[in-house]
Design goal:
single chain; alpha/beta; Metallo-beta-lactamase, Chain A; 6-stranded mixed sheet; 4-stranded antiparallel sheet; about 25% strand; globular; RibonucZ/Hydroxyglut_hydro; Metallo-beta-lactamase domain-containing protein; Metallo-B-lactamas
Protein backbone atom coordinates (compact mmCIF):
# COMPACT_ATOMS: atom_id res chain seq x y z
CA UNK A 1 0.00 0.00 0.00
CA UNK A 2 1.39 3.41 -0.96
CA UNK A 3 -0.01 6.89 -0.53
CA UNK A 4 0.36 10.40 0.78
CA UNK A 5 -1.88 9.92 3.79
CA UNK A 6 -5.05 10.96 1.97
CA UNK A 7 -5.05 8.91 -1.23
CA UNK A 8 -3.62 5.43 -1.34
CA UNK A 9 -3.16 2.65 -3.84
CA UNK A 10 -2.68 -1.08 -3.34
CA UNK A 11 -0.05 -3.11 -5.17
CA UNK A 12 -0.39 -6.91 -5.13
CA UNK A 13 2.67 -8.84 -6.29
CA UNK A 14 2.26 -12.39 -7.53
CA UNK A 15 4.53 -15.22 -8.61
CA UNK A 16 4.81 -16.42 -12.19
CA UNK A 17 7.34 -18.34 -14.25
CA UNK A 18 8.48 -20.20 -11.15
CA UNK A 19 10.68 -23.27 -11.12
CA UNK A 20 9.84 -26.33 -9.04
CA UNK A 21 13.15 -26.01 -7.20
CA UNK A 22 12.22 -23.97 -4.14
CA UNK A 23 15.88 -23.70 -3.17
CA UNK A 24 16.66 -21.69 -6.28
CA UNK A 25 16.95 -17.98 -5.60
CA UNK A 26 17.37 -14.96 -7.82
CA UNK A 27 20.73 -13.25 -7.56
CA UNK A 28 20.33 -9.73 -6.27
CA UNK A 29 22.47 -6.91 -7.56
CA UNK A 30 23.86 -4.29 -5.21
CA UNK A 31 21.41 -1.72 -6.53
CA UNK A 32 18.42 -3.80 -5.44
CA UNK A 33 18.80 -2.56 -1.84
CA UNK A 34 16.52 -5.27 -0.50
CA UNK A 35 16.31 -6.51 3.07
CA UNK A 36 15.07 -9.89 4.15
CA UNK A 37 11.97 -9.81 6.34
CA UNK A 38 10.57 -12.20 8.93
CA UNK A 39 8.29 -13.87 6.36
CA UNK A 40 11.22 -15.13 4.32
CA UNK A 41 10.66 -12.63 1.54
CA UNK A 42 12.27 -9.43 0.38
CA UNK A 43 10.94 -5.91 0.41
CA UNK A 44 12.11 -2.57 -0.85
CA UNK A 45 10.97 1.06 -0.68
CA UNK A 46 9.72 0.69 2.87
CA UNK A 47 6.12 1.74 3.27
CA UNK A 48 5.19 1.40 -0.39
CA UNK A 49 3.96 -2.19 -0.38
CA UNK A 50 2.67 -4.78 1.99
CA UNK A 51 4.56 -8.04 2.37
CA UNK A 52 2.17 -9.71 4.76
CA UNK A 53 1.40 -13.40 4.85
CA UNK A 54 0.43 -14.70 1.44
CA UNK A 55 2.08 -12.06 -0.71
CA UNK A 56 4.82 -12.98 -3.14
CA UNK A 57 8.17 -13.96 -1.70
CA UNK A 58 10.44 -11.66 -3.65
CA UNK A 59 13.67 -13.20 -4.84
CA UNK A 60 12.89 -16.87 -4.24
CA UNK A 61 12.36 -19.42 -7.01
CA UNK A 62 10.63 -17.17 -9.58
CA UNK A 63 12.34 -15.73 -12.63
CA UNK A 64 9.63 -13.07 -13.03
CA UNK A 65 6.91 -11.61 -10.84
CA UNK A 66 3.71 -9.88 -11.84
CA UNK A 67 1.77 -7.10 -10.15
CA UNK A 68 -1.77 -5.77 -9.81
CA UNK A 69 -2.28 -2.05 -9.15
CA UNK A 70 -5.48 -0.74 -7.57
CA UNK A 71 -6.27 2.80 -8.76
CA UNK A 72 -3.90 5.56 -9.85
CA UNK A 73 -4.51 8.80 -7.90
CA UNK A 74 -3.24 11.91 -9.73
CA UNK A 75 -2.24 13.66 -6.51
CA UNK A 76 0.61 11.14 -6.17
CA UNK A 77 2.24 13.11 -8.98
CA UNK A 78 3.11 12.63 -12.66
CA UNK A 79 6.09 10.53 -11.61
CA UNK A 80 3.92 7.90 -9.92
CA UNK A 81 4.04 5.61 -12.97
CA UNK A 82 7.84 5.80 -13.03
CA UNK A 83 7.93 5.16 -9.28
CA UNK A 84 5.92 1.96 -9.74
CA UNK A 85 8.15 0.88 -12.64
CA UNK A 86 11.36 1.53 -10.68
CA UNK A 87 10.12 -0.40 -7.67
CA UNK A 88 8.89 -3.37 -9.71
CA UNK A 89 12.15 -3.49 -11.69
CA UNK A 90 14.00 -3.75 -8.37
CA UNK A 91 12.18 -7.01 -7.60
CA UNK A 92 12.17 -8.31 -11.19
CA UNK A 93 8.42 -7.78 -11.61
CA UNK A 94 6.10 -6.39 -14.28
CA UNK A 95 2.93 -4.39 -13.80
CA UNK A 96 0.34 -6.37 -15.76
CA UNK A 97 -3.08 -5.57 -14.25
CA UNK A 98 -4.85 -2.44 -13.04
CA UNK A 99 -8.13 -2.46 -11.10
CA UNK A 100 -10.25 0.70 -11.21
CA UNK A 101 -12.48 0.92 -8.14
CA UNK A 102 -14.69 3.81 -9.28
CA UNK A 103 -14.93 6.60 -11.81
CA UNK A 104 -13.72 9.60 -9.81
CA UNK A 105 -10.65 11.30 -11.24
CA UNK A 106 -8.99 11.53 -7.84
CA UNK A 107 -8.57 7.75 -8.04
CA UNK A 108 -8.13 7.00 -11.76
CA UNK A 109 -6.78 10.28 -13.12
CA UNK A 110 -3.12 9.19 -13.17
CA UNK A 111 -3.78 6.32 -15.53
CA UNK A 112 -1.99 7.87 -18.51
CA UNK A 113 1.28 8.22 -16.60
CA UNK A 114 1.05 4.68 -15.23
CA UNK A 115 0.33 3.24 -18.69
CA UNK A 116 3.15 5.21 -20.33
CA UNK A 117 5.74 4.10 -17.77
CA UNK A 118 4.63 0.45 -17.66
CA UNK A 119 4.23 -0.99 -21.19
CA UNK A 120 3.57 -4.45 -19.73
CA UNK A 121 0.23 -3.21 -18.34
CA UNK A 122 -2.37 -4.89 -20.54
CA UNK A 123 -5.33 -5.89 -18.35
CA UNK A 124 -7.81 -3.40 -16.93
CA UNK A 125 -10.43 -4.70 -14.51
CA UNK A 126 -13.58 -3.08 -13.16
CA UNK A 127 -17.28 -3.67 -12.57
CA UNK A 128 -19.97 -3.16 -15.19
CA UNK A 129 -21.47 -0.04 -13.62
CA UNK A 130 -18.11 1.65 -13.17
CA UNK A 131 -17.19 0.84 -16.78
CA UNK A 132 -20.48 2.25 -18.04
CA UNK A 133 -19.96 5.52 -16.17
CA UNK A 134 -16.35 5.87 -17.29
CA UNK A 135 -17.31 5.24 -20.91
CA UNK A 136 -19.97 7.94 -20.60
CA UNK A 137 -17.36 10.37 -19.29
CA UNK A 138 -15.03 9.48 -22.14
CA UNK A 139 -17.82 10.11 -24.65
CA UNK A 140 -18.23 13.59 -23.19
CA UNK A 141 -14.49 14.21 -23.26
CA UNK A 142 -13.65 12.67 -26.62
CA UNK A 143 -16.86 12.08 -28.57
CA UNK A 144 -17.72 15.69 -29.38
CA UNK A 145 -15.07 18.44 -29.52
CA UNK A 146 -17.49 21.18 -28.50
CA UNK A 147 -18.83 19.23 -25.50
CA UNK A 148 -15.26 18.45 -24.50
CA UNK A 149 -14.34 22.12 -24.74
CA UNK A 150 -17.22 23.11 -22.47
CA UNK A 151 -17.17 20.29 -19.92
CA UNK A 152 -13.63 18.94 -19.69
CA UNK A 153 -10.96 21.24 -18.22
CA UNK A 154 -8.54 18.30 -17.99
CA UNK A 155 -7.05 17.49 -21.44
CA UNK A 156 -5.14 14.54 -19.98
CA UNK A 157 -8.21 12.61 -18.90
CA UNK A 158 -7.11 8.95 -19.13
CA UNK A 159 -8.73 6.68 -21.66
CA UNK A 160 -9.45 3.21 -20.34
CA UNK A 161 -10.22 0.20 -22.52
CA UNK A 162 -11.35 -2.44 -20.04
CA UNK A 163 -10.38 -6.03 -20.80
CA UNK A 164 -12.18 -7.57 -17.81
CA UNK A 165 -15.64 -6.26 -16.86
CA UNK A 166 -17.71 -8.28 -14.39
CA UNK A 167 -21.26 -7.96 -13.08
CA UNK A 168 -22.07 -8.33 -9.41
CA UNK A 169 -19.02 -10.16 -8.11
CA UNK A 170 -16.04 -12.08 -9.42
CA UNK A 171 -12.94 -13.91 -8.26
CA UNK A 172 -9.69 -13.32 -10.11
CA UNK A 173 -6.57 -15.47 -9.88
CA UNK A 174 -3.27 -13.76 -10.63
CA UNK A 175 -0.45 -16.25 -10.29
CA UNK A 176 -0.45 -17.32 -6.64
CA UNK A 177 -2.73 -14.45 -5.59
CA UNK A 178 -6.54 -14.44 -5.45
CA UNK A 179 -8.69 -11.32 -5.30
CA UNK A 180 -12.45 -11.28 -4.74
CA UNK A 181 -14.20 -8.24 -6.21
CA UNK A 182 -17.77 -7.10 -5.63
CA UNK A 183 -19.85 -4.20 -6.93
CA UNK A 184 -21.41 -2.12 -4.17
CA UNK A 185 -23.13 1.24 -3.87
CA UNK A 186 -22.72 4.00 -1.34
CA UNK A 187 -19.94 6.34 -2.45
CA UNK A 188 -20.65 5.77 -6.15
CA UNK A 189 -22.80 3.25 -8.07
CA UNK A 190 -20.85 0.02 -8.34
CA UNK A 191 -17.95 1.15 -6.17
CA UNK A 192 -15.69 -1.91 -5.81
CA UNK A 193 -14.94 -3.92 -2.70
CA UNK A 194 -11.73 -5.98 -2.85
CA UNK A 195 -10.91 -8.90 -0.56
CA UNK A 196 -7.43 -10.43 -0.46
CA UNK A 197 -7.89 -13.65 1.46
CA UNK A 198 -4.23 -14.52 1.99
CA UNK A 199 -3.53 -11.33 3.94
CA UNK A 200 -7.12 -10.92 5.24
CA UNK A 201 -7.20 -7.35 3.93
CA UNK A 202 -10.53 -5.82 2.89
CA UNK A 203 -10.41 -2.73 0.67
CA UNK A 204 -13.39 -0.55 -0.19
CA UNK A 205 -11.94 2.61 -1.68
CA UNK A 206 -13.74 5.78 -0.55
CA UNK A 207 -16.14 3.80 1.59
CA UNK A 208 -17.79 5.79 4.40
CA UNK A 209 -15.37 4.58 7.06
CA UNK A 210 -12.96 7.37 7.90
CA UNK A 211 -11.77 8.62 11.30
CA UNK A 212 -13.97 11.54 12.41
CA UNK A 213 -16.05 11.25 9.22
CA UNK A 214 -18.43 8.36 9.74
CA UNK A 215 -21.34 8.55 10.22
CA UNK A 216 -21.05 12.27 9.52
CA UNK A 217 -19.82 14.43 6.66
CA UNK A 218 -22.35 12.85 4.31
CA UNK A 219 -20.83 9.40 4.82
CA UNK A 220 -17.77 10.14 2.67
CA UNK A 221 -19.90 12.11 0.21
CA UNK A 222 -21.91 8.98 -0.56
CA UNK A 223 -24.48 9.16 -3.34
CA UNK A 224 -26.56 6.43 -1.71
CA UNK A 225 -26.83 7.17 2.02
CA UNK A 226 -29.11 4.21 2.95
CA UNK A 227 -26.78 1.75 1.24
CA UNK A 228 -23.77 3.38 2.86
CA UNK A 229 -25.10 2.17 6.21
CA UNK A 230 -25.58 -1.32 4.77
CA UNK A 231 -21.90 -1.41 3.83
CA UNK A 232 -21.06 -2.19 7.44
CA UNK A 233 -23.04 -5.43 7.12
CA UNK A 234 -20.96 -6.25 4.03
CA UNK A 235 -17.75 -5.69 5.97
CA UNK A 236 -18.87 -7.86 8.87
CA UNK A 237 -19.42 -10.73 6.45
CA UNK A 238 -15.65 -11.00 6.12
Amino acid sequence: MYGDGTYMTNLYVYEKECSSDTKKSKKKSKKDKMTKDSNGGYRSLKGSTSNRRGLSRYGTNCERLGAVLVDAPPNLGPGFGDFIKTFLDSINADLEVMIVTHEHLDHMGNGNNVMAANPTLSRFVTGSRVAETIHAFQTIDYGNPRIREIMSPNPDYPRYEFTDVFEGEATYHFGNQTLYLKELDGHTPGNLLIWHDASKVLTNIDAPVFPKWSPFFELAIALNIPFAYKLFDEYRAF
